Amino acid sequence: MPQSPQSPEWLIDTLGARRVLAFGAHPDDVDFGAAATLAALTERGVEVTLCLLTAGDAGGFEVGQDRAEMARRRQAEQEAAAAVLGIKEVILLDERDGWVEPTPDLIRSVVRVMRQVQPDVVMSPHPERAWDRLQKSHPDHLACGEAVVRASYPAVENPFAFPELVEQDGLAAFKVRHLMLMAAPEERINLRVDVTDHVGQKLEALRKHFSQHPDPVRMEEFVISRLRRIHAAGTAEGAPEGHAEDFHWVVVNGPETFAGF
């Protein structure tokens, strides 16, 4: 049976999504994967924080571009896009665009942010490669997903994993409850969110990343078509047309979880 699209209220009621932390390897990653869902949540009072691993300085289509200038440009674009979605805080880490790896140092940085924000739900690119459309499985995306998953369990909830975070920064161990992983392989998708009322905000956020879109009209057509396909995949034939974003939902710590099991 297809997974019917859930409402944003369902995320709030079922997942207890009052605070969300979304990770992306580059500016625009989260906007492509979950912008409409995040817009729907912030509209309902959910606090969303965005954390980028890189400034995206290896992106764009201008030959001979200055990487430092591109980093500044993309950071400004992301902050503008975040404002469209109601996201008030954008955190930027210092990983190198194109060379992200799930190293202990990166996992420590991710754990630090998680303990600072203490989210109910963590979003991230998926750590598994999707062969149906390889472009959504950029190596940096996979590495970001792997680092976030490793941080989510067990590192963030283990006070012995990075004791300096407790001793020096006062950041106590914290349990992540839910993961919503974007750009998942089709066979992993088990959650669709109806975003029919928030497509405009998603497109507006994506338009802010103007340095990345040599053909913005085609980009928007692709995005809208995909949102329709995702919605249709979770509804019966002949149902009204709508738009949805999809995720691999993972319960990290639920009612039946005890002592790390």
Automatic annotation (TrEMBL):
A Pfam family reported for this protein in Swiss-Prot or TrEMBL: PIG-L
Matches recorded under InterPro entries: GlcNAc_PI_deacetylase-related, LmbE-like_dom_sf
Keyword terms, alphabetized: Zinc
Sample GO molecular function, one term: hydrolase activity, acting on carbon-nitrogen (but not peptide) bonds, in linear amides
Biological processes per GO annotation: glycoside metabolic process
Keyword Zinc in record: yes
Record-linked PANTHER family: LMBE FAMILY PROTEIN, N-ACETYLGLUCOSAMINYL-PHOSPHATIDYLINOSITOL DE-N-ACETYLASE-RELATED
UniProt-recorded name of the protein: LmbE family N-acetylglucosaminyl deacetylase
Native species: Nesterenkonia xinjiangensis
